[in-house]
Amino acid sequence: MQNLKSLRQDKTRKFARRKIKVNSAIKAIAPDFRVVINKTNKYMKAQVLDQDGKVVACMVDKGMKGVLLKTGGTLVTKVQSSAMAGEKLAALLKEKGIKKATYDRNGHLYHGRVQAMADGLRKGGIQI
After folding, report:
1. Can you say whether the dihedral through the CA atoms of 72, 74, 75, 76 is positive or negative?
2. What are the extents of the domains in the chain?
3. Per-residue pLDDT, 65
């Protein structure tokens, strides 16, 4: 049986390999705008970058939970707050005249919060 250190190294190696594959595929098509996801255990951050790598817009889902609690809503999960952050980011992009972007999941599996953020962007009217 492998020890924990080698298991962690394998997991890190697989993530790095996925990240390289995803990023090389996205950069090969050279999109005008790309939505780059950064995921931690607590928050999801999405940045919209242009071709030069400059930040056009940014959204973090940490404020979404407080908005619902202040308005008397129920507690939300991390997946729900990611979906709401995606919708808010879509509204910001529409204000700037961006209707189409490429979704860069940054090596993360398309599941859970990553998928919810993409669904929120689509629901907000951004073509991914």
Report:
1. negative
2. 4-123
3. 59
Q: What pTM was estimated for this model as a whole?
A: 0.77
Cα distances (Å, whole numbers) of residue 20 to 17, 40, 61, 117 = 5, 19, 25, 21
123: CB partners within 8 A, 6+ apart: 83, 86, 87, 90
Token pair 């991914």 is found at 128
Each residue's pLDDT tens digit, 64-85: 655 565 556 677 788 888 898 8
Work out the average pLDDT over 9-16: 84
Say if CB 66 and CB 43 are below 8 A apart.
Answer: no
Closest to 85 in 3D by CA, of 64, 71, 100 = 64
Q: How many CB atoms lie within 10 A of CB 73?
A: 10
How many C-beta atoms surround the C-beta of residue 35 within 10 A? 28
Look at residue 28 and tell me whether its pLDDT is greater than 90: no
What class is the 4-123 domain? alpha beta
Residue pair 82/120 in contact by the 8 Å Cβ criterion: yes
